[in-house]
Amino acid sequence: IACAGCAGSFFVRKRPDGRHPDREPYAYYACTYHHLRGDRVCQNGLGMVMSEADTAVLDVLRKDILNPAALSLGIEMTRERYAARPGDLADQRASLEPDVSRVERQISNLVDQLAEGRHSPAVRQRLHEGIETRERERDALRVKLDRLDAVARLPRLDAAGLTKTLHERLKAWRTLLDAEPVKARQIIRKLLHGRLVFTPDPAQRLYTFEGPGSYGRLLEGVVQNVWCPRGDSNTRHAV
What we know:
By secondary structure, the chain is of the alpha+beta class. Helix content is 56%, strand content 15%. The strands form 2 sheets. It has a 4-stranded mixed sheet with strand order 1-5-6-7, covered by helices on one side. Strands 2-3-4 form a 3-stranded antiparallel sheet. Helix 4 (86-116) packs antiparallel against helix 5 (121-152).
């Protein structure tokens, strides 16, 4: 997890003074940078009870990510993505190829101007920047063409078999979230694409958290020989 104020990590502290409502010693998360360097680096001095934060994150993963309805939607989107007819793919490719040619001509023209060697340093800098910008545009277009070619080579998906297998895996992962912490952490790493960012609200004494979840690793080993883009979604919840 990361602090929204400084992008730093949290650490765990033990508080034995009985300030928690249950009047027992407990652990809590706190911003590492604030603890070590104070307000001049990060003004987030709000702590959160470790057990409550852990429970909130697991509940979100269980209800919003490992949700049969959400997974069904993801499966349907995957089917639609790879169910394009050859004619549709050809039309998309035909619309991209002229753009690639146009950008390559622009790059060639800029390179010719740069090769003349009669420009001022400022103009040469602008020419270099123009070439780099158009090269990035060309590379992005080529990636799109490669993806269309990959989709065109894909076998037909066994939609029924895919749905059955993924829902079985979904059920198993939901069970593992309730298991011992080691297995739960393994599932969390598979579901999250990056870190959860916790934003403090000092006035209400709570945090909201959000982060990208992905079904990419849920699909691993299920859809064989199929390139599968990540369908990320952000969720926001409070603890």
